[in-house]
Amino acid sequence: MCHSDQHCIEECLNGRPDAFRHLVVRYERPIMSYLVSRMGDREAAAEAAQESFVRAYFRLNTLKKGDSFSSWMIGIAQRVMLETFRRKRREENLSGADTPVAPTTDVGMEDHSELAEAVSRLPAIYREVIVLRYFGGLSCAEAADRLCVPLGTATKRLSRAYRLLRAALTLPDGQRSEA
After folding, report:
1. What is the pLDDT along the chain (179 residues), one digit of tens a residue?
2. Range of the domain at 162
3. How many domains does the chain divide into?
4. Distant-in-sequence, close-in-space partners of 115: CB < 8 Å, separation ≥ 6
5. CB 21, CB 56: distance < 8 Å
6. Which of 30, 57, 62, 103 is the most buried (most CB within 10 A)?
7. Separation between Cα atoms, residue 54 and residue 71, nearest integer Å
8. How far is Cα 162 from Cα 165, in angstroms, rounded to an integer?
9. The whole model's pTM is what?
10. CA 154 to CA 141: how far, in whole Å?
11. What CA–CA distance (Å, rounded) separates 156 from 151?
12. Domain holding 105: CATH number?
């Protein structure tokens, strides 16, 4: 059965915690893809994803708009990932190891933050398809299935979302941002 994010959140907050399972199923692949691409380690990414979903569950009542769950979830995952990098750096500094912790640099993280910010400002129907397609690595057909919309609707939303993101990430003098 296809539930909207808002419906699942309301169910969960109304005493049916098993409704959160639908959100996990819907977003586990996008969150894992996001984390694996930035962390470079599938096992560490799986651990960070699990921690992200646990935090989201326990803080679900703080989510102001249910239709922004996907970008909220990515924000949680990014914070968990950064905490993981910091913890590993501290551990390595204590042990005297000189190996790099993360495949990405702080500059790369800032660039991604700009993109995540732009995605979070998109209307919900465009944000959902971007999260599933870009962060989740789903095909347009798979995203359409997850969203319970026809393929043409999903591709049109994706096209409009890309256009809105390009506009949001274009600097005033016409140059594009690096994000």
Report:
1. 557 888 889 999 999 988 899 999 999 999 998 898 888 889 999 999 999 999 999 999 898 887 788 888 988 998 899 888 888 887 777 766 544 444 443 334 444 667 777 887 888 788 888 888 877 777 788 788 777 788 888 889 888 988 888 888 875 555 555 54
2. 5-168
3. 1
4. 165, 169, 179
5. no
6. 30
7. 16
8. 5
9. 0.58
10. 8
11. 9
12. 1.10.10.10
Amino acid at 120: S
Rounded to whole angstroms, the Cα distance separating 5 from 155 reads 20
Token pair of 20, please?
């959160």
Tracing tokens 């640099």 back to the chain, one arrives at 105
Residue 175 in domain: no
Measured distance CA(11)–CA(18) in Å, rounded? 9
| Torsion angle (degrees, nearest 10) of CA 92, 93, 99, 102 | 70
